[in-house]
Amino acid sequence: MREDYGLGTLEKRFADIIWERAPFPMSELVKICEEEFSWKRTTTYTVLKKLSNRGLFENRNGTVEILMEKEEFYARQSEAYVKESFGGSLPGFLTAFTSRKKLSREEIDELKKIIESQS
Fold it and tell me: Does the pTM exceed 0.85?
């Protein structure tokens, strides 16, 4: 399994369909993708296989199943971004983020609660 947490626009829409409905029959996914994206059956199988190789989903005996929940995927995506762009420094990321966007009082309070719950 590759640790690639980027999704293209179509991959994201495809993943959202699965995250919203799974588990469900592969035949239903093929039908949905035909309607949503005008894909052929083989394209649906190819994209599912690509995301399966990345550890997101699985076609188990004709049933599409989730291997990694959406929240977990986006948490890992965020971690990978901070690691790659800020050397893993969350304070570095927050400094960069807040240099252009002032945090509201509510956001500051929420961040304080998150930090306090970690100790």
Answer: no
Domain 9-70 bears CATH identifier 3.30.70 = no
User: By three-state DSSP, how is residue 60 classified?
Assistant: strand
For the chain, the structural domain boundaries read 9-70, 89-119
**pLDDT, tens digit only, all 119 positions of the chain:** 446 678 999 999 999 999 999 999 999 999 999 999 999 999 999 999 999 999 999 999 999 999 999 999 999 999 999 999 999 998 899 889 888 888 899 999 998 998 899 87
The widest CA-to-CA distance across the chain, in whole angstroms, is: 51
Which run of H or of E encompasses 1?
Answer: none
Q: How far is CA 3 from CA 7, 54, 66, 83, 84, in A?
A: 12, 7, 17, 13, 13
Question: For the sheet containing 24-25, what is the strand order?
Answer: 24-25, 63-66, 57-60
Radius of gyration of the chain (CA): 18
Report which DSSP code applies to 61: T
